[in-house]
Design a protein that fits this description.
four-stranded antiparallel beta sheet, 19% strand, globular, six-stranded mixed beta sheet, Jelly Rolls, Arc Repressor Mutant, subunit A, alpha+beta
Amino acid sequence: MSSDTLSDVLRAVRLTGAVFIDVDVRSPWATFAPHSRHLIPLIMPDAQHLISYHLVTEGECYAVHKGHEPVKLEAGDIIVFPHGNHHTLASEPSLRAPESFDLADVDLSSQRPWKIRGGGNGNTHIKLVCGFLGCDVRPFNPLVAALPAQIHCSGKNPDCSARLNHFYQMAVAESHGQRMGGESILAKLSELLFIELVRMHLESLPKEQTGWLAGLRDRHVGHTLSLMHAQPARNWTLETLSAEVGLSRSALADRFADFVGLPPMQYLAKWRMQIASGLLTQGQANIAKIAVDVGYESEAAFSRAFKKVVGMPPAAWRRSRQNGAQADH
């Protein structure tokens, strides 16, 4: 596996954590969580995509996700929804929640994490830390695309418990302590927690599994990805890549496409555009300089390639992102 490739993607897609909701309710209780696209304006307006997760700190509840069996969550369990799909959290799987998300009872001006209190008149407490991670998915985020709809890590799993217990303990302490700097601690914990869950998910994949994540651990595909990520501006060809990894061109092309779903050169083009989009958004470098930085000999060639992958010229992308940021403020 090439951990550097995973780190490259995490940096390039601007993974940013934010924990906002501390839930302490009594049974019977149920709430509907809409698709994260509806929460972006409230939670993280400058994010393209939100990944949601729930960490159970006391009691038990169920996560009900359409098309999947209800998942029982107990203290120490974590469930992540990488694609931000809508789902229901409830003290019993049969309980229905209104299909709306009401933040009316949450004081959005208060110190984060925000608090939700209430539920029924039962004696059972359910306590959760609900968090969100923002990231880019355009032009290219191979990681999110490779993840399943949900990832559940049970606190009863010795490996899960051993590797995540320190995150769990710190999240509980910070969410309940209201100490200065707690919001920043929780945000960084969210990022670290997600990365660790991704690594655990990768390690659990069966040997016959394909996909971008599985490709990271494949000797030849992982090496190819590592080379392109290490030197994205290099004038790579299928021939130079095959010579580096020790496979024939046809064998490498077939193996790479089987795992990643794209030919190597097409993957490289998309990855270059992800890097370029970040340079366009985050700085004021001129487009000719960015073209060279991502491996193009001329601004015109870069602009054509960028428009082909992204759907608009680089200058228009920069304006759209800058205008969006100004609107958010």
